[in-house]
Design brief:
Number of helices: 9
Bound molecules: 4'-deoxy-4'-aminopyridoxal-5'-phosphate
Shape: globular
Order of helices and strands: EHHEHEHEEEEEEEHHHEEHEEH
Distance between the termini: 54 Å
Structural class: alpha/beta
Strand order of the largest sheet: 2-10-9-8-5-3-4
Mean pLDDT: 96
Length: 386
């Protein structure tokens, strides 16, 4: 018998500010969205583009949604100069669904998928492949490296990665959301092997050279928009290499001729992603975004570099621009930090239960003022409690 879940209790949410005011949201995702995007959304939910109908109510086959999808794709392409032989797909099921779709499509009988495990999500991805590994119709999942020996606090050197003799693809996760580590180079893979990357928690936080990849994907809810859509950028030959023996909705090729709409897509999430892409274009593109993100992260890393009170989780050459992780001397002080920060309008700082401590996610939409406020709070908290 399938176990039945007890009904969820409804939590009490205490207001921290009057309804008209906002606070700084350091949540790892869904994360902060740009203020001007949210204001545009407010209008378009009522009536988009003078159509007399709100974005939530438009048919996904109509002209308004055609325009929304086409503009989103065009801006996503423009931002990273994505060549025509890559398709832009808007998918559902989160990044997690991709973790399953990838081995279903590309790890058929006789093929090996190589996985680089550098954190919780990379590990979860490899687990989906291991589940299929050796089953009828499927090949083998190979772990080419695993940084669990140091609690995923570092990024491995190329010499630490042991590929299988002839992988069908290599998968890695370029920003480890829980641990706060980031790849600042692209791993060297055997020549001609398709490289697939989960970029969920730092997509478009800095320039990306798509031509080095066969596929990248990212759940939107961190840097690109709200939950519900997953951006997938995939090269034509990989689309074609996918299995034809699995459900149509699990095949990438199904989404190509239908412009991501073989069935009802997450229209609202793609629409907001389009507004966020326009906002990045308007603010100078990915190079300018990188500079801005570096200067924001520096405000917090400067505190961590000059303290014995806070202990950073990530090794300094691997620390993420997007998820900043550190510990305090005790659990009591961690709880106190989170509570007092929240009282000062700094929300979402509690680290993931696997890593503990504090995690500050400073995604694209986090203003510099938020990072300034957090760094000041950290200094003051240390002065009082250190
Ligand atoms: N990959 C990474 C790097 C993530 O950070 C997350 C979510 N935190 C996921 C995958 C899973 O994403 P989703 O919840 O959209 O399935």
């Amino acid at each position: 018998m399938t176990p039945t879940a007890s009904p969820a209790a409804v939590p009490t949410v205490k207001p921290s500010k009057p309804a008209s005011e906002r606070i700084f949201n350091f949540s790892a995702g869904p994360g902060a969205l740009p203020e001007e995007v949210l204001r545009q959304v407010q209008q378009d939910v009522w009536n988009i583009g003078g159509s007399g109908i709100g974005i939530l109510e438009h048919s996904h086959r109509g002209k308004v949604v055609d325009k929304v999808f086409a503009e989103c794709e065009a801006d996503i392409r423009k931002l990273a100069n994505i060549p025509a032989n890559y398709k832009i797909l808007f998918l559902t099921g989160g990044a997690s669904a991709q973790n399953h779709m990838i081995p279903m499509n590309f790890m058929g009988a006789g093929k090996t998928g190589d996985y680089l495990i550098t954190g919780f999500w990379a590990q979860k991805t490899a687990e989906q492949a291991k589940k299929l590994s050796g089953k009828p119709g499927f090949g083998t999942a190979n772990v080419a490296c695993d940084t669990k020996d140091q609690n995923h606090s570092y990024i491995p050197a190329d010499s630490q990665i042991k590929y299988s003799s002839s992988p069908a693809f290599v998968h890695y996760c370029s920003n480890n959301t829980l641990e706060g580590t980031e790849w600042f180079r692209i791993p060297a893979v055997p020549s001609g092997v398709p490289l697939i990357c989960d970029t969920s928690s730092h997509m478009y936080s800095r320039p990306i050279d798509i031509t080095k990849y066969a596929m990248v994907y990212a759940g939107a809810q961190k840097n690109l928009g709200p939950a519900g859509a997953t951006l997938c950028i995939i090269r034509d030959d990989l689309v074609e290499a996918g299995s034809k023996d699995i459900a149509d909705l699990l095949q990438y090729r199904t989404f190509v001729p239908e412009l991501s709409r073989p069935n009802t897509p997450p229209v609202f999430a793609v629409y907001v992603m389009g507004l966020v892409a326009k906002w990045i274009v308007k603010n100078g593109g990915l190079a300018a975004t990188q500079k801005h993100n570096e200067s924001k992260a520096k405000l917090i890393y400067d505190v961590l570099d000059n303290t014995k009170f806070y202990k950073p989780h990530a090794k300094s050459d691997a620390r993420s621009l997007m998820n900043i992780t550190f510990r305090l001397p005790s659990d009591e002080l961690t709880d106190k930090f989170v509570k007092e920060a929240q009282a000062q309008g700094l929300d979402g700082l509690k680290g993931h239960r696997n890593i503990g401590g504090i995690r500050a996610s400073t995604y694209n939409a986090m203003p510099r003022a938020g990072c300034e406020a957090l760094s000041q709070f950290m200094r003051e908290f240390e002065r009082k409690n250190g």
